[in-house]
Design a protein that fits this description.
Elements (H helix, E strand, L loop, with lengths): L6 E10 L2 E9 L1 H11 L9 E7 L2 E10 L4 E5 L2 H7 L6 E8 L3
Antiparallel strand pairs: 1-2, 1-6, 2-5, 3-4, 3-6, 4-5
Amino acid sequence: MSSKYAYTIHSKVFPYPGMTAWRFAHVDKIQSAQIREKYGKGARGFGSIPVSVLLGASRWDTSIFPDKQSGTYLLPLKSKIRQAEGVDDGDAVTFKLKIRMR
């Protein structure tokens, strides 16, 4: 797979309702639909799609998860990443995704 990031997403950081220790950012509806169409059949547990992420200077591997309520995928943002990038609740962020499925 190419090392280029295929998706550039603009979103806001938010705590997930009922899981206040967790912070997420939505993949927008259009790009979520594209990802679901292209990679959804190969999804893993809980419908997750493995990705590589670039947010600011931070790069890491994780998975995005489908959110039935919003109809989008959610990117979990670890505390370590949020601290390194100075990201807090309600902040607008831009991140890049590369799908890691074969």
